[in-house]
Amino acid sequence: MALWQSRRLGAWGVAAAAWLGMLGCSGGPAKTDPPKAADAQPDKSAPKSNPSNSGQPVAAVAGAAAKAPRDDQLYHPFAEAVRDAGDPPAFVNMPADKTQTGKPTFQLLGLVQQTWDDIRFTTPDGKRIDYTAVLDTNAGPVEIALRPDVAPNHVRSFVSLIRAGYYDGMRFDRIHHEVSADAPNDPLDYIEAGCPLDKGDPEDGSIGYWLKPEAAEALHHEIGAVGAMHGSAPDSAACKFYIMLCDAPYLDGHYTVFGKVTKGMDVVRTMFTRPVIIDDTDPPGHNRPKDPIIIRKATVQTQVAGGSEGK
After folding, report:
1. Rounded distance, CA 100 to CA 166, Å?
2. Mean pLDDT by 10 residues, the chain (311 residues)
3. What is the per-residue pLDDT for 42?
């Protein structure tokens, strides 16, 4: 495969376009009428921000974040951090009207925009606010420590999607195990989740916005790393994410890593060993689980660094 050839020959740039297009998740057909940000109508009954289980009062953390200075280096307005449906990346499909869980994409987009500015990673006095994502799956819980210091816009997007309820009911829809003939003992292994639809198109994965890359090499593609999946264009990451089950340093700088699993890697490994559907229309080694792996509920926990329990 092109990835492995480029790795052995040191010619990543030549093979990148072909291989990166294969590293998407399944999706739906292109839409001619994408949702526009101006048309977003947030669902007032949607879930609100999740409480912290860290001992830090919810109101205190949320209020501290909302009052953080606008010149905070980790803050970027939504319009600066993303490309919207008026200026989409190359090759992408426009969003479907609804996700596979039946949620209208225009409402989800509106909720992300509505909560974007309220998610801050430092308090007014400069203390760090730590974020942990918790995925309650039918295979068990998985906790992810998020890294806004490296990829603030990807973390802010992930948190906004969680708080909008986007991932509730979604699936870990792809299990990737790719083996090259010239490196049989060094496979590329990861699981993938969060695709709006599940119809095999790697260029589908957005609800109306796409994140600009933050692919710093400070975080590495190692076991447990959590990154943002994109299609052919590096600025086409949106809702899909992956969890690594191998070390793949050749991906560093090409995909944005924004967190790491801190609890539940045994659950991730269990997911990876699930039986898969072999379909000739899928990219090699990129298969659907036979039995759905469901994210029943996704939540976010916050804690001010150095804060004590109950304060």
Report:
1. 10
2. 34 33 37 38 39 39 47 87 95 94 97 96 92 98 97 98 98 92 85 87 89 90 97 94 96 96 98 92 87 97 74 34
3. 36
Q: How far is the C-alpha of 258 from the C-alpha of 306, rounded, in Å? A: 22
Task: Point out which residues pair with 139 in neighbouring strands.
Answer: none
CA 167 to chain centre: 10
Q: What is the CA radius of gyration of the chain?
A: 19
CA distance readout (Å), 101 to 26, 135, 251: 15, 16, 31
In angstroms, rounded to a whole number, what is the distance separating the alpha carbons of residues 159 and 132? 9
Indicate the domain borders of the chain: 25-304
Rounded distance between C-alpha atoms, residue 262 and residue 143, angstroms: 6
45: helix, strand or coil: coil
- What helix, strand, coil percent values describe the chain, rounded to 5? 25, 25, 50
CATH code 2.60.40.10 for 25-304: no
Tokens of 273: 């060993």
If 0-12 CB within 10 Å is exposed, 13-18 middle and 19+ buried, where does residue 104 land? middle
CB-based contacts of 288, cutoff 8 Å, min separation 6? 26, 173, 174, 175, 198, 276, 277, 279, 282
For residues 81, 85, 90, 91, the Cα torsion angle rounded to the nearest 10 degrees is 130
DSSP letters, 76-119, are --HHHHEEETTSPPTTPPPPPSB-TTS-BHHHHHHHHHHHHTT-
Task: Count how many Cα atoms sit within 13 Å of the Cα of residue 279 in the half-sphere of its side chain.
Answer: 16
Report the amino acid identity of residue 209: Y
